[in-house]
């Protein structure tokens, strides 16, 4: 699988640590500063950098904390290197590069890494392309073989058939990400109007379907020759490596790749608008009106970009942020507002976005934005706001380098786009140097009184909600025509010219099997019944912890579904002694992150903090848990926001499928047949008293567990929990009983009409057993070769072989009460019938086609995969949560390895026969009824039962 990503997602650690965008929280009040400013982080990622004779920059970083190795290869080529009429080439080429090369067989790139226990992917953005993998260290040389062959020896294998097949995959990705989603076209509308036609940012990364369809084999080869030389790339290898040995291997596999054409850096090219441009579009899938105002700004690393990043947070985030204050609190036009700067290699843009409440006139929203900006101009903001931003940086920095892959992203990104991995320090210094005056200056320079591009995307038939005077955006919708695409079979015939090399580039053997040491888990129970589990890990000065309270949605009355969800949101809106603003202040000054979430069977409070701030962070969590404020105004705002979100989901086919598939699985009488967030009807009926009653009845230490991982000892944790021991009273929680739906002997096929859908969402599901069942692991193992990733059969069949989809998977939805086997894909509309037929046939034949080789492959994958499961604090918390949630022994990971080693092929086949029967699965298709409904009746699954978007049967 590949994906379109942004520059900030490539430098994942950089973005999470330093790009101060609208995703963070801040407060705007002038209050006393009780915490000293965080000093500049004196930290670097140690590395060695050198250059091969062919120009490839290689960066090595050693990290022996886990027996894994990560590779990240960044090519300095994205959509900005394309030209009008030939857009989408960079992203399309990324797809092609995953197929095969001269010495690596077709499909091996996608299949082999997963089967070696690793993970892989790639991404394209405006300015670059990245390929990345993480594998157990014994597969390191195999990874060098695969990656070097892709870099130097793949273009001769690109055939016309391969080209045409991959076009269908990329088209499916565009339909899934853009054409079939609410507001999907907004980005391309803004880009094409903000930037001149000859500007490299004028078109979207995925490009146009017309350009893609017209791409020729010669076009692709020219693009490769121009931009894919090793001299236009940075290769980072990070993890459990030895430098001398690694250098020899890099020279062996990459050293004789031919040098490419010289590629000049693009010069910064920020733009100016001569007038404000206002555009509108009636969105077939949107249910809410949305307005965006986009101002041109500057390129990344420009001095002003740092202040613009901070400006976005100050304008939109926090209870006193002007956009929030005016739009959400005072005028109640929307549940939220966002503002953020996005600076890329040669230009940037500052966006203000508001998705308004249903039926809201966007002229009112535009006026409210202008009023909020005027408020910012007159009232300003405090030094404390900057302090909170900087306090978070240190915590987020360490989180951003918690994995070897993130370290590789950092090193590669800084080297390729800033000239050196050491630019990390300058980047931090620039962020910390931002002053109040800098932020005021960039506001006056780039926002106040400046022209912008404005989009009004409104639901179909509600053009009157668009901003007055806006012109039609000119969005061209693709028409899906039955039989328009031909099925293409791509054969790995090998009849292409082979490049001469100094040694046979055959697949290297695996290295020595890495030793796997599961983490040591400690376990303790407090006097009030709260169970405490922990793992001490001292790699970074961080602590993460979760308090998981059993129940959640499962304990709600069905007619009041959504109560737990609203409670989880409301718990973050102040405490008995702290207003919502004061709580935000307290969290922000610690640089911590605290979240409360409600799920099907729990409510979880999670926290992420520097080790030195653990006690203070825990104190805030205790206050949130034990002293909720239950603010009436915040309750009404949260409820309205949830209703707005539920309304929007009515136009999103994947969201509709997810919601209704629950009802299909569990039936009308089971609470899990209703989403944890509730429905419009159930949420509308919830009162603040309902939320208080749920809290008083169901939040108890007797059904809770505290999990902690990081730089803290067991004794320190137990000492810190004294208040929870004495102040959190135990209570008896009553558990309702629900009868799971009985599986029919004959599949049912359901259909929901989304008129004009470019894709059909297909979901199959079958209930299995409670999550703690001893059969759970066996079913996970048995499913691996069917649908657990890109190397599995569903993906290989529906995407690689047929080109019908962007991805196809099966998985086990693990729930304590009753789990389910699920299969899911989104396919282009005109192959809906064919795709469902292939999916059901593949599952039906699975038991008979599952071989001894599949069995051996699965054993290897599962065992090797565990080398990557203890790397981050988040993954360690996952281990602890599984132990408490499903009552597993502390050393369950070792037991599972032994259990897997003792299984035989017959055990797998028995599990498949028992739990993977397509004739007992029900299927749901969400798509365009006009073109697809009648065809589905030919499958032998009976006449499709038509449902509305809420899962109610339609008489037809």
Entry keywords:
956 residues; alpha/beta; Cytochrome Bc1 Complex, Chain A, domain 1; 4 domains; seven-stranded mixed sheet; six-stranded mixed sheet; 34 helices; 25 strands; 17% strand; disordered N terminus
Can you walk me through this structure?
With 956 residues, the chain is α/β, with parallel strands linked by helices. The longest helix is centred in the N-terminal third of the chain and has 20 residues, at 160-179. It is globular and about 75 Å long. The strands form 4 sheets. A 7-stranded mixed β-sheet has the order 1-5-6-4-7-3-2, sandwiched between helices. Residues 1-40 have low confidence and may be disordered.
Estimated helix fraction: 40-55%
Q: Sketch the major β-sheet.
A: 7 strands, mixed
Average pLDDT, all residues: 89
Number of domains: 4
Distance between the termini: 39 Å
Number of strands: 25
Give me a quick take on this structure.
The protein is α/β, with parallel strands linked by helices and 956 residues long.
Task: Give the secondary structure arrangement, pairings included.
Elements lengths: L1 E3 L2 H4 L1 H7 L29 E4 L5 E6 L5 E8 L13 H8 L11 H8 L3 E6 L4 E8 L3 H13 L7 H20 L6 H9 L14 H6 L2 H11 L5 E7 L3 H12 L22 E7 L6 E8 L5 H14 L5 H9 L7 E6 L4 E8 L6 H18 L3 H18 L3 H15 L4 H10 L3 H12 L5 E7 L11 E2 L49 E4 L5 E6 L5 E9 L12 H8 L9 H11 L2 E6 L3 E9 L3 H13 L5 H18 L3 H14 L13 H5 L3 H11 L5 E7 L3 H7 L1 H6 L21 E5 L5 E9 L8 H12 L5 H9 L3 E9 L6 E9 L3 H18 L2 H14 L7 H13 L6 H11 L2 H11 L6 E6 L1 H8 L8 E3 L9
């Amino acid at each position: 699988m590949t994906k379109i990503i942004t520059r900030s997602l490539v430098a994942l650690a950089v973005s999470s640590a330093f790009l101060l965008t609208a995703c963070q929280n801040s407060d705007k009040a002038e209050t006393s500063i009780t915490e000293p400013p965080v000093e500049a982080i004196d930290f670097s990622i140690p590395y060695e950098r050198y250059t091969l004779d062919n120009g490839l920059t290689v960066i090595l970083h050693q990290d022996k904390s886990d027996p894994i190795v990560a590779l990240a290869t960044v090519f300095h080529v994205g959509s900005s290197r394309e030209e009008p009429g030939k857009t989408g080439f960079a992203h399309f080429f990324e797809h092609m590069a995953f197929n095969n090369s001269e010495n690596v067989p077709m499909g091996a790139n996608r299949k082999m890494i997963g089967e070696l226990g690793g993970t892989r992917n790639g991404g394209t953005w405006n300015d670059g392309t990245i390929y990345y993998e993480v594998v157990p260290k014994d597969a390191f040389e195999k990874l060098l073989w695969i990656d070097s062959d892709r870099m130097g020896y793949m273009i001769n294998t690109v055939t016309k058939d391969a080209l045409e097949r991959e076009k269908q995959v990329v088209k499916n990705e565009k339909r899934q990400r853009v054409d079939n989603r609410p507001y999907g076209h907004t980005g391309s509308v803004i880009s094409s109007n903000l930037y001149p036609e000859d500007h490299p940012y004028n078109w979207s990364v995925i490009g146009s379907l017309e350009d893609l369809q017209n791409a020729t084999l010669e076009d692709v080869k020219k693009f490769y020759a121009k931009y894919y030389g090793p001299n236009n790339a940075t290769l980072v290898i990070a993890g459990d490596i030895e430098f001398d040995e690694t250098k020899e291997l890099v020279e062996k596999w990459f050293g004789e790749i031919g040098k490419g054409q010289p590629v000049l850096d693009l010069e910064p090219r920020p733009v100016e608008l001569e007038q404000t441009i206002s555009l509108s579009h009636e969105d077939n899938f949107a249910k809410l009106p949305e307005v965006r105002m986009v101002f041109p700004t500057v390129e990344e690393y420009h001095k002003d970009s740092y202040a613009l990043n901070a400006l976005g947070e100050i304008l939109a985030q926090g209870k006193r942020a002007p956009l929030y204050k005016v739009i959400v609190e005072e005028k109640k036009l929307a549940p939220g507002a966002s503002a953020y700067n996005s600076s890329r290699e040669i230009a940037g843009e500052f966006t203000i976005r508001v998705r308004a409440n249903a039926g809201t006139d966007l002229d009112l929203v535009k006026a409210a934005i202008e009023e909020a900006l005027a408020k910012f101009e007159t009232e300003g903001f405090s030094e404390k706001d900057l302090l909170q931003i900087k306090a978070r940086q240190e915590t987020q920095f360490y989180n951003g380098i918690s994995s070897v892959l993130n370290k590789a992203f950092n090193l590669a990104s800084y080297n390729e786009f800033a000239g050196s991995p050491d630019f990390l320090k300058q980047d931090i210094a620039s962020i910390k140097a931002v002053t109040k005056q800098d932020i005021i200056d960039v506001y006056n320079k780039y926002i106040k009184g400046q022209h912008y591009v404005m989009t009004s995307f409104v639901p179909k038939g509600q053009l009157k909600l668009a901003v007055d005077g806006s012109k039609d955006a000119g969005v061209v919708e693709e028409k899906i025509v039955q039989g328009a695409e031909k099925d293409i079979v791509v054969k790995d015939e090998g009849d292409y010219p082979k490049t001469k090399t100094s040694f046979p580039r055959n697949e290297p053997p695996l290295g020595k099997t890495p030793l796997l040491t599961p983490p040591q888990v400690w376990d303790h129970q407090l006097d009030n019944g709260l169970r405490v589990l922990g793992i001490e890990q001292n790699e970074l000065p961080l602590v993460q912890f979760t308090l998981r309270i059993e129940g959640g949605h499962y304990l709600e009355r069905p007619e009041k579904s959504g109560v737990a969800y609203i409670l989880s949101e409301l718990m973050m809106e102040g405490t008995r002694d702290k207003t919502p603003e004061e709580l935000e202040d307290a969290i922000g000054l610690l640089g911590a992150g605290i979240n409360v979430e409600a799920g099907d069977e729990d409510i979880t409070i999670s926290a992420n903090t520097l080790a030195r701030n653990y006690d203070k962070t825990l104190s805030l969590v205790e206050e949130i848990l034990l002293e909720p404020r239950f603010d009436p105004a915040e309750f009404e705002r949260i409820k309205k926001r949830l209703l707005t979100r539920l309304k929007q989901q009515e136009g999103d086919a994947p969201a509709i499928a997810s919601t209704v598939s629950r009802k299909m699985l569990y039936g009308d009488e089971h609470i899990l047949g209703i989403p944890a967030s509730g429905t419009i009807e159930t949420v509308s009926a919830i009162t603040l008293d309902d939320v208080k009653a749920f809290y008083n009845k169901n939040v108890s230490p007797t059904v809770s567990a505290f999990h902690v991982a990081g730089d803290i000892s067991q004794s320190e944790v137990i000492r810190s929990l004294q208040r929870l021991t004495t102040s959190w009273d135990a209570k008896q929680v009553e558990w309702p009983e629900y009868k799971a739906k009985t599986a029919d002997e004959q599949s049912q096929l359901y259909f929901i009409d989304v008129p004009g859908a470019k894709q059909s969402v297909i979901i199959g599901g079958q209930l299995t057993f409670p999550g703690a069942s001893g059969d759970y692991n066996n079913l996970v193992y048995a499913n691996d070769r069917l649908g657990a990733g890109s190397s599995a059969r569903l993906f290989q069949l529906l995407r690689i072989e047929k080109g019908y989809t962007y991805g196809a998977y099966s998985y086990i939805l693990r729930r304590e009460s009753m789990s389910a086997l699920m299969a899911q894909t989104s396919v282009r509309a005109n192959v809906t019938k064919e795709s469902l037929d292939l999916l059901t046939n593949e599952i039906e034949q699975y038991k008979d086609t599952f071989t001894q080789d599949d069995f051996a492959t699965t054993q290897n994958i599962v065992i090797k995969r565990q080398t990557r499961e203890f790397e981050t604090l988040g993954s360690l918390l996952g281990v602890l949560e599984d132990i408490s949630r499903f009552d597993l022994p502390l050393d369950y990971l070792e037991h599972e390895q032994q259990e897997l080693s003792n299984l035989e092929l017959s055990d797998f086949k028995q599990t498949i026969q028992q739990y993977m029967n397509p004739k007992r699965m029900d299927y749901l298709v969400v798509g365009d009824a006009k073109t697809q409904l009648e065809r589905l009746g030919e499958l032998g699954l009976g006449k499709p039962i038509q449902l509305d978007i809420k899962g109610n049967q339609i008489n037809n």
